[in-house]
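Morning. Coffee machine broken again, so started the prediction first thing and wrote up yesterday's gels while waiting. Chain of 183 residues, entered below exactly as on the submission form.
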Amino acid sequence: MLVLLAVAGVGGCAGSGVSQGSAPGAPAPSSSSAPFPAAASPDPTAAERTETPDPRGSNDLGMEPATPMPAPSWDGRSRAAAVTAAQEALRRFARPGLSPAQWQDGLRPVLSEAGRQWYQYVDPAQVPATQVRPGARLVDVSSPYLAGVDVPTDVGVYRVLLSRLEAAAPWKVERFTPPKGVR
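Came back before lunch.
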């Protein structure tokens, strides 16, 4: 009988708002303040629901995913385009008689983003070359995304480093490297 009363007494305390170790008159902790929430019960219909992927490939945000760009490769067309782009870019670069604003406006379309930052403060009067000569040749094809082209000028051969983002993208200048000994 004593055991039964002790069990009933503990049960009575829990229901009375007094818990073991709490001050008399303090509210009893609610079941929602338990240190760990109860595990969610499995959704009985979850197995029945199957998400069908959107044939257009949209994501959860309703946005269309980016279409993968075709990877570039080296072929006759891309080789010729790299040489032509390097010659045209160096023609735009080798104009020391222009004002800085005119020079920048002419050069900007052939520069990559990094190239724009690299050349934004260049004074065109400091560019030693004034003429591009024939005979440009592709010299570095180690990556289909980059091209090194040697372009002869009136002060020697410049190396023009070009880049492209994908097969259909135009070649853009990353850097013009003057001939050795020319600054």
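Residues 1-23, 30-37 have pLDDT under 50 and may be disordered. Going to sketch it on the whiteboard this afternoon.
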